[in-house]
Amino acid sequence: MGRIRVRLKERSYDILTGSGVLGRSGAYLSSLNIGKDAYIITNSLLKIKYGDILAGSLSAKGFNVRFKTVPDSEKSKSLKTACPLLKNLAFFDKNRKVFIVAFGGGVIGDLAGFIAAVYKRGIPYIQVPTTLLAQVDASIGGKTALDLDAGKNLVGAFYQPKIVLSDTGLLKSLARRQISSGMAEVIKYAIIGESGLFTYLEKNRDAVFSFRPAALERIISSCAKIKAGIVERDEKETLGLRTVLNFGHTMGHAIESASAYRTYNHGEAVALGIITACDLSRRMGLIGDKLFLRIRNLISAYHLPVKLKGVSLHEVVKAHYHDKKFSGKENKLVLIRGLSRPVAAKNVPLALIKQSLSSIF
Amino acid sequence: MGRIRVRLKERSYDILTGSGVLGRSGAYLSSLNIGKDAYIITNSLLKIKYGDILAGSLSAKGFNVRFKTVPDSEKSKSLKTACPLLKNLAFFDKNRKVFIVAFGGGVIGDLAGFIAAVYKRGIPYIQVPTTLLAQVDASIGGKTALDLDAGKNLVGAFYQPKIVLSDTGLLKSLARRQISSGMAEVIKYAIIGESGLFTYLEKNRDAVFSFRPAALERIISSCAKIKAGIVERDEKETLGLRTVLNFGHTMGHAIESASAYRTYNHGEAVALGIITACDLSRRMGLIGDKLFLRIRNLISAYHLPVKLKGVSLHEVVKAHYHDKKFSGKENKLVLIRGLSRPVAAKNVPLALIKQSLSSIF
Prior knowledge:
The structure is a homodimer. Chain A is of the alpha/beta class. Chain A has 2 domains: 2-174, 3-Layer(aba) Sandwich (Rossmann fold), CATH 3.40.50.1970; 177-358, Dehydroquinate synthase-like, alpha domain. Chain A has helices spanning 25-30, 44-60, 79-92, 106-118, 132-138, 176-193, 195-203, 205-209, 213-233, 249-258, 266-283, 289-301, 313-320, 350-358; strands at 2-6, 13-18, 37-42, 64-69, 98-104, 125-129, 143-148, 151-158, 163-167, 332-336, 342-346. In chain A, a hairpin with a 5-residue loop joins strand 10 and strand 11 (342-346). In chain A, helix 10 packs across helix 11 (266-283) and helix 10 packs across helix 13. The model of chain A has no long low-confidence stretch (mean pLDDT 95). At the A-B interface, helix 3, helix 4, strand 7 and strand 8 of A face helix 3, helix 4, strand 7 and strand 8 of B.
């Protein structure tokens, strides 16, 4: 089992990774002093599949358990879902010793984390991510959020969990497309943070898709380490250091938004965003053709798209202007000078952005 | 004009107190680098009375201004009010340079502060308190909150403003009952934090009720200084130091709740809570009869109640068990050993609490 410490003074916490972590969750929690009553936010499918393991482990250590399910949809990341949950939570919280368990993918992590952040101005919560995407990225770093009609993640808080329990055994039940989606973020981390992971991904594709525990643990631990290192230095995104985590995401979000969140899932859109950012890096002379092709090939090898379909260049360009990171006419994009060498580039000429976007059509 | 600094590292800010501060708000804000677009949350009456002064001052310094009014009622501190405001704010925020102005009493400060705390994981906001209660207490310290059906202030965040502008000139239009309500908090600060203020209050009642600027500024500045000092040492109420601010509030909340928030306003309930806490302190041998009577007389002099009507002892005792500060069978009450000498007492016998409560019937 892997254990990575996220060092944030009194908000520090561990990320535990490995097969079977879920069944030992009660033991991990009993040493944390986080309360007695577990309010588990999840979806119906997860509750049916793994609810007994989680509840059994918690009950065995004396925790009281209440499940609350929300639809398995991005729409659950809304005020409409959050408000009734807060009301329900307040009535469950008779003993004033409640804590939240975010048991699910990124949507549930964001929703449950936000509820924990604002209920009584912050109660303890733990992340139990069930998708690869959530295990390598969303569950770490304390960003919680809800969407508004005007845009995604517009309501939220920086709020750290007390522990992250990433059970690699849960990944077996994911569809290949979901694994690929998570791998887009893994590839991002490999590019911006660890060339050793990049080489490992090039060599171990089959191990990943056959859910080999050692491979999954290696990948998740590496990503967690890279993200923890960045979050430790810039917890609330005030120093600009956390910006590198947006590598591939500015264009990725624009692609998701332009295609109305239908054609591509988050990871697929990020994969296309990574290719665009790398193409831009190449056009600006920051990296050579060889590295660009290695990255493009790796993305393709993990069954992620390298061409964009069903949406026009114009629509993507228009959507990218709505990104939170853009203020007025200015833009800020994360590019690379090589593996493990991300750079923030300001005011990249629109003509160049369009050329790079054209290359994925 | 008084200027008090709240020192919280990168979250430090000034509290400015004096007559005419509102008309200079644009000038104060222009040095803060907080954005360009002011989203002012207020109520209709305040907008009619003072909207032009505030908007004129901001516009003169190049700020764009949008007013958003909410009903002048505790009911505005709700998810039902906050959710549409967040949506509206997101559509107003075209230039991504928006900040919030909380222009009103405690309800508006709590609501607007919470919106600022969660929109985009936190945007700048300023407090422009318009009641004595808000100027001496609610606007300082960064506690923001909404109510739920299950209880008051159950949803919220610790989130500091960028500046507090307390215009004493605005107090002239308050009813005497509202001044008295604010004075209950002032008396609390005098008891727990500054015996000089206590003596000042004993001697200057008429100056307060005739709105003499020097008296109001003295009072507001003193309270701000005391609260700032406590908040600086325990910003997020994690060390127990901030607990002393609850002096008079545990029983005050129980009285408000037992009387369904109708008979007594917040300050009046706190006044009765202070008397109960002082009576308890006397019964436990912490203070003598003389100080108890001085306190009781001061409360009475400021037209605050010293007897509780319209509710039974049983109802108040029942309600006090619902206080957030109580966990299970334990209780924690703030008592005093003398002026400026608050103490946190744990597990005070219920029989003693009942005796002290009986004394105000």
